[in-house]
Amino acid sequence: GDFMPNPNQASLEKVPVILPDGSHANINTYEINSAQVITYPSTGDAALDAEAFRKWQFIRLPEELGGAKTDTSSLRVYSMICLHLWCLWKYWPEDGRKRGECPCHGSMYDPATGTAFAGPASVQASPSNTLPELNVEIDSDGFIFILPPKFDANSNGVIGYGRFT
Predict the structure, then answer these.
(1) How many domains does the chain have?
(2) Which of 27, 97, 100, 157 has its CA 20 to 30 A from that of 65?
(3) pLDDT at residue 2 in the model
């Protein structure tokens, strides 16, 4: 019989940031102080692409953290896997929040650094207190791309484990 495809077969190459509506993310239209869930690496297989370890928060920072800039410094892409017990955290853009929050045990993440500043993930030793991150680039038309990551603790980080800062 057929087996499920191996997720390691997904090629890690430069790919467009595809938003949930199917559009290619563009710095000129992606709202300041907002976030959407993206899938990386996408395999084209709906079951594999639904895995939590492929889900990332694609954040455009709030204005006070540089979100109005039209370069890569205004963007962050963090693994959605909370470093405490692997629940899925979310970015909250509302005034008074503007942070990532895990609904399970209350870990909170700084949107500029991906480092936990409150809750159980914040008391874990480095690198297990800073979320894995994907690097992006923006082309001359404003379209945003994910660059090939190196998933180790000293580079982009390890999903579910963290990264050194």
Answers:
(1) 1
(2) 157
(3) 54
φ, ψ for residue 88, nearest 5 deg: -95, 120
Distance CA 130, CA 84 (A): 11
- Residue 122, in any domain of the structure: yes
Instruction: Compute the distance between CA of residue 35 and CA of residue 67 in angstroms, rounded to an integer.
Output: 12
Residue 132 sits in a domain of what CATH number?
2.102.10.10
Predicted TM-score (pTM) of the model is 0.93
Q: How far apart are CA 93 and CA 140, in angstroms?
A: 28
Q: Residues 86-107: pLDDT tens digits?
A: 999 999 999 999 999 999 999 9
- Nearest residue to 18 via CA among 39, 35, 33: 39
Q: Which residues contact 48 (CB under 8 A, 6 or more apart)?
A: 4, 5, 7, 54
Does residue 161 belong to any structural domain of this protein? no
Please indicate, yes or no, if residue 160 is contained in any of the structural domains.
Answer: no
The radius of gyration computed from the CA coordinates of the chain, to the nearest angstrom, equals 15
Tokens (6 digits) for 45 = 């297989």
Residue numbers in the chain where pLDDT is lower than 70? 1-11
